[in-house]
Amino acid sequence: MISDEDQSDAKTDRELADDLLMDAILEGHHQDERHAVDARVRRVMLDVNALPDRSGEPATKQAHLSHRLARRGWGVAIAAAVLMAAGLTTMLMISTTPTAVAGLDQTLRLMERGDLTFRLELTREKKAGLSAVDRRFPQQRDRPPRHLGRSGPPLEQFNGAALHIRGPKYVLLGDRDRASGLAKGFDGTTHWTNGPKQAPRDENPRSRGPLLDEFFEFTTLDVPELIRDLRRSYDVEIIEIESTPSPDGFDRNLVHYRADRREGTRAGLPVQIDLWTDADTGRLEAMDCSGVQLRGPESTYEVSLTLQSDAQLPEEWFDRDSHLPEHNRGGHRPRDLDKPGFHVPFPPPHRNEEKGGRPPRRPDRNR
Amino acid sequence: MLLAMLRSMVFDKSAVDDLYQETMITAWRTLDRYDEERPFGPWLRGIARFQTLAYYRKTKRLPTFDHDRVIAHIENRLDEIATRPGDTWDEKIEALDDCLERLPVDARNVVALHYEQSLTTEVIAHRLRTSREAIKKRLQRARVRLTDCFERKGLFLRLETES
Q1: Are A191 and A203 in contact (CB under 8 A)?
Q2: Are residues A329 and A206 in the same domain?
Q3: Which of A251-260, A272-281, A288-297, A351-360 has the lowest mean pLDDT?
Q4: Of A206, A189, A165, A208, which Cα lies nearest the Cα of A295?
Q5: Residues in CB range of A78: below 8 A, 6 or more apart
Q6: Phi/psi of residue A244, each to 5°?
């Protein structure tokens, strides 16, 4: 800006206006680096977040407008501020870690408030060349495999399993009718495992039993904690806002985050995580984790979660007794399960496609 | 675009950021009053103008020029830029780099020292062993050339000379 002392010599108001504007344009052209914009947006968002919480309200005009504004490219900050305050997660073009991770705070808040059911898919990463872990952390290749020789159920049987989440609580169910009793969970205080042939038991998180013990390495079970880990251990960026058709005929926007594990961080965490959250609500819609070491560094998996339902689950759903095998169930059964018409959401493949939408587009990792 | 408007209206850099923030927060608080049938930019700039006037009143640093007329003209110019193709401000003023390239070397150098390296006119004058007034003149002439270039490239409408 032209300073007080450098007042322009322009003779007319028009000339002065042009001079002031060109001065402003030049200043912005050379000084609006991304970090400056980022800082500005963060300041606005901090203030917006200090406003009364509107995230519990139904879709607001703000939420609707935010999409229009974003499409018009109208000011990163107003779009970001509006999006954030309306309970949205995206910072649009802002891709630095602090800002991007801040967008996931709303995702975490939603996980504390309600129940989410995901379909879990496991894919062993191909041996062609180095695994994702080896490529990224070659120094770990010589480490003795911790789980080598351990027995356990084939992990592939959990392909298609249901993962129910309520804040820090979770339940992983191996099958729809729970006949096998293969289940693992955390009820808020105790980690528990139910096996098909043995009596249920509680577990101290640090003393692992033989059944499904590999899944303690499977950090993605505790999704909220994994998302918190993004701030500590990952470089996070927003890749893009993806538009996807939804059953009501309107386009739905998904914010695609990508997180790369930093060197020197805790081993066992996925090497790369892709997340998709609903731009309107911040709800986690899908997550892909690659380089997940379920059975030692020589055996890495890709783990995918796709949201199937946000239906409220029975109150006792996360208790061990609710998932005992048939022969061991006795009198334990969640009350709500006996109500007529109650349906426990178990993930069919690609529910979204059945409803006319489609699952979030998975990332092109070569990009 | 909003920043360009604020920068052109307010001398104090830190005040620009504060006003930008105030404008955004006010926009958020009053978004229910925004008529979706009307363009968003002018509505937001209206808030910025109001915030700027409040700032002037508060700091008692009223500009020496006819504020309303100058601001009206700046807003017209911004509306002209807004009609340019491109989604972002940078895309809309893409021609600026070309216009900068076409400046005479001495003007380009002074522009670079002042805007790119953020040197004051006084420091530039000292470095180039000339007077501060001469640097001010050079900068102003450069800005006039750039405005002309914008007009030639259609970013600004060419205005008739004021009588």
Answers
A1: yes
A2: yes
A3: A351-360
A4: A208
A5: A44, A69, B24, B27, B28, B44
A6: -140, 140
- Closest chain A residue to B62, measured at CA: A4
Tell me the residue length of chain B.
163
Q: Please indicate whether residue B4 or residue A93 has the higher confidence score (pLDDT).
A: B4
Which pairs count as long-range contacts for B106-109, CB under 8 Å and 24+ apart, including other chains?
B106/B138, B107/B138, B107/B141, B107/B142, B107/B145, B108/B142
pLDDT at res. A356:
40
Looking at the structure, do residues B75 and B14 belong to the same domain, yes or no? yes
Residue of B nearest to A80 (CA): B24
**Residue A28 and residue A133 in one domain:** no
A59 to chain B, any CB pair closer than 8 A? The answer is: no
Chain position carrying tokens 């009501």: A248
Please determine, for residue A17, whether its predicted confidence score (pLDDT) is greater than 90. no
Please give the Cα distance from A81 to B35 (Å, whole number): 19
pLDDT band at A292 (very low <50, low <70, confident <90, very high): confident
Q: Do B27 and A23 touch (CB under 8 A)?
A: no
Q: Is the confidence at residue A263, as pLDDT, over 50?
A: yes
Per-residue buried b or exposed e for A21-34, using 16+ beta carbons within 10 Å of the residue's own CB: bbbbbbbbbbeeee
Note down the domain range covering A189. Answer: 110-354
**pLDDT per position as a tens digit, B81-136:** 877 777 667 777 888 888 998 899 888 889 988 888 888 899 899 888 899 999 99
One domain for residues A198 and A318: yes
Distance CA B16, CA B3 (A): 8
- H-helix segments, chain A: 13-31, 34-50, 61-72, 76-85, 97-103, 105-113, 132-136, 214-217, 223-233, 351-354
Q: Which of B11, B111, B147 lies closest to A18 in CB terms? A: B147
Q: Which phi and psi (to 5°) does residue B57 adopt? A: -65, -40
Query: Using the beta-carbon criterion (under 8 Å), do A20 and B70 form an inter-chain contact?
Result: yes
Of B83, B104, B119, the residue that ends a domain is B83
Q: Would the pTM count as exceeding 0.90?
A: no
> Contact A18/B17, CB-based, under 8 Å?
no
Domain CATH for B37: 1.10.1740.10
Range of the domain at B61: 1-83
Q: CB-CB: which of B8, B24, B65 is closest to A21?
A: B8
- CB distance from A53 to chain B under 8 Å? no
Interface touch A22/B73, C-beta < 8 Å? no
A188 to A301, A319, A333, B56: CA distances (angstroms): 27, 9, 19, 56
| Distance separating alpha carbons of residues A266 and A270, to the nearest angstrom | 10
The answer, yes or no, to whether residue A91 has pLDDT greater than 60, is: no
* Mean pLDDT of all residues in A191-220: 49
* B20 interaction partners in chain A (CB closer than 8 Å): 40, 44, 77
Residue B156, pLDDT score? 82
Tell me how close the Cα of A71 comes to any Cα of chain B, in angstroms: 8
Q: Are A287 and A275 in contact (CB under 8 A)?
A: yes
